[in-house]
């Protein structure tokens, strides 16, 4: 079960956004990621609880940030309820999308599990609903993902397979690269892996 923490920053001006302390693991029905986020001041700033089924679909997502929370799942596309902590201002919505995304590294792993790309795969388009900080406002976006290469790196625990993906925002054409090993993001815009207490999990 990988456990560690990421540092988060604005990918454009590098403003620190805090840290995300996480643990995650594959299980008999899919994969689960749980994290707590702290602001740069060290104060609690939210949490992520994401569970995927064996096909990479989000069967449960619970996000907390500021005074807002999201409960969501892949139902009729994707469906979510956004509410304040008391639940008095809850709104339900739906979109014809494949999955969710946001600032947490969990969503990058989730997208790779959904797409199951190989270096021989063509670039694949995916529609995602992004929940933007700090109020978890939903926004639908389209991306193109391609697995450029997979390389084995020697470690004390045996070879570590690192996948290099190219992600393109289809509305702006902006491209960026992410590196993932198993269920851990090694590097991505706005994300740095600061500490990892155990090796990444490998998926069957």
From TrEMBL:
Question: Residue ranges of region Disordered?
Answer: 1-20
The source's superkingdom equals Bacteria
Q: Where is the composition biased (Basic and acidic residues)?
A: 7-20
State the name under which the record lists this protein: Glycolipid-binding domain-containing protein
């Amino acid at each position: 079960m990988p456990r560690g923490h990421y540092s988060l920053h604005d990918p454009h001006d590098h403003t620190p956004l805090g840290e995300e302390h996480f643990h995650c693991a594959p299980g008999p029905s899919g994969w689960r990621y749980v994290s707590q986020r702290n602001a740069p001041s060290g104060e609690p700033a939210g949490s992520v609880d994401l569970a995927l089924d064996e096909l990479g679909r989000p069967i449960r997502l619970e996000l907390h940030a500021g005074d807002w929370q999201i409960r969501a799942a892949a139902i009729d596309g994707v469906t979510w309820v956004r509410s304040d902590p008391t639940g008095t201002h809850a709104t339900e919505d739906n979109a014809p999308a494949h999955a969710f995304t946001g600032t947490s590294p969990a969503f990058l792993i989730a997208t790779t599990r959904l797409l199951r790309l190989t270096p021989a795969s063509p670039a694949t388009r995916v529609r995602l609903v992004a929940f933007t900080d700090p109020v978890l406002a939903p926004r639908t976006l389209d991306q193109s993902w391609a697995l450029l290469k997979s390389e084995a790196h020697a470690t004390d625990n045996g070879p570590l397979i690192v996948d290099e993906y190219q992600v393109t925002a289809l509305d702006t054409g902006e491209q960026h690269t992410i590196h993932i090993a198993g269920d851990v993001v090694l590097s991505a815009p706005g994300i740095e892996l600061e500490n990892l207490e155990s090796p990444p999990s490998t998926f069957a």
